[in-house]
Specification:
Elements: E1 3-4, E2 8-9, H1 15-18, H2 23-36, E3 57-60, E4 75-78, E5 81-87, H3 102-119, E6 127-134, H4 140-151, E7 157-162, E8 171-178
Parallel strand pairs: 6-7
Antiparallel strand pairs: 1-2, 3-4, 4-5, 5-8, 6-8
Length: 181
């Protein structure tokens, strides 16, 4: 009986046998095929059993940033990835909007965002992407100035979108951070 590498008979590769094959037999058959092509294990994902992703999903909350009466978390961390929900320019202690200018609101929004990052074990230096939502394109230059002062170089990647926010709100910002651990 002809075999190759794993000792699986080559006739086991016949189409008739595939339907009734156990997962272990299928894995061995793929390994036999990979051996025939002289593939190394890292070139053949099916040669090793899949590992179950065991990273837990952790909800991040802090009293140092406002919580909203909406079905969302301030942040979610899974492994080294931390997603911070869109932050608004509310004072976390009073719940009032901070400032009437986009510069004031941007500064407060970034303070709130930084508080959630810190609660998740991150900082602005871990942020790879910020998304800024403005209500008026005319606010871009003023927001950029406040943003640059608060975030600092090297700046993360960023997208700026114009949208409607509730009355009195001029800016919302969310973040994606990747931690080293």
């Amino acid at each position: 009986m002809a075999t190759r590498g794993t000792g699986v008979p080559l006739h086991a590769l016949a189409e008739d046998n595939l339907a009734a094959a156990s997962p272990d037999l299928l894995r061995a058959m793929v390994k036999t095929f990979a051996d025939t092509l002289e593939l190394t294990p890292h070139m053949c994902f099916a040669c090793t059993p899949p590992s179950r992703n065991t990273m837990t999903r952790t909800v991040i909350t802090t009293d140092n940033a406002p919580s909203l009466p909406a079905p969302l978390s301030q942040g979610i961390r899974k492994g080294p990835v931390l997603q911070v929900s869109g932050q608004l320019p509310f004072d976390p202690d009073t719940g009032e909007v901070v400032g009437t200018t986009v510069a004031e609101q941007t500064a407060q929004t970034l303070r709130n965002l930084t508080a959630v990052l810190k609660a998740g074990g991150a900082g602005l230096e871990d942020v790879v992407m910020l998304r800024v939502y403005l209500t008026d394109p005319a606010h871009l230059a003023e927001m950029n100035e406040a943003y640059a002062a608060a975030v600092g170089e090297p700046f993360p990647a960023r997208t700026t979108v114009y949208m409607q926010l509730p009355p009195g709100l001029l800016v919302e910002i969310d973040a994606l951070a990747v931690l080293d651990d």
